[in-house]
Automatic annotation (TrEMBL):
<feature type="domain" description="HPr">
    <location>
        <begin position="1"/>
        <end position="89"/>
    </location>
</feature>
<dbReference type="GO" id="GO:0009401">
    <property type="term" value="P:phosphoenolpyruvate-dependent sugar phosphotransferase system"/>
</dbReference>
<dbReference type="GO" id="GO:0005737">
    <property type="term" value="C:cytoplasm"/>
</dbReference>
<comment type="function">
    <text>General (non sugar-specific) component of the phosphoenolpyruvate-dependent sugar phosphotransferase system (sugar PTS). This major carbohydrate active-transport system catalyzes the phosphorylation of incoming sugar substrates concomitantly with their translocation across the cell membrane. The phosphoryl group from phosphoenolpyruvate (PEP) is transferred to the phosphoryl carrier protein HPr by enzyme I. Phospho-HPr then transfers it to the PTS EIIA domain.</text>
</comment>
<protein>
    <recommendedName>
        <fullName>Phosphocarrier protein HPr</fullName>
    </recommendedName>
</protein>
<dbReference type="InterPro" id="IPR001020">
    <property type="entry name" value="PTS_HPr_His_P_site"/>
</dbReference>
<dbReference type="InterPro" id="IPR050399">
    <property type="entry name" value="HPr"/>
</dbReference>
<dbReference type="Pfam" id="PF00381">
    <property type="entry name" value="PTS-HPr"/>
</dbReference>
<feature type="signal peptide">
    <location>
        <begin position="1"/>
        <end position="24"/>
    </location>
</feature>
<dbReference type="InterPro" id="IPR035895">
    <property type="entry name" value="HPr-like_sf"/>
</dbReference>
<dbReference type="InterPro" id="IPR000032">
    <property type="entry name" value="HPr-like"/>
</dbReference>
<keyword id="KW-0732">Signal</keyword>
<keyword id="KW-0598">Phosphotransferase system</keyword>
<keyword id="KW-0963">Cytoplasm</keyword>
Amino acid sequence: MQRRVRIAASVGLHARPAALLAQAAAAQAQPVTVAKVVDGEAGAPVDAASVLGLMSLGARHGEEVELSGPDEAALDELAALLEQDLDKAPA
């Protein structure tokens, strides 16, 4: 399964947003990968549970990434995270 989502974090997948996403991905029962979408095509995927892998994508605010994995609920959860500005401290 795949799900495409736009990065809402104002700094993109920088340290804090990448760490929060990686933590959520590591808690999933099945592995999930993330690939940056450029010109409609998904690039090389990285392990969503890897902070360094996520940061290496260079995904910026407003850019699209593709989540891939066998569990639709996990993809829904991770997509919902990416649709938030994860760089803001919780209220």
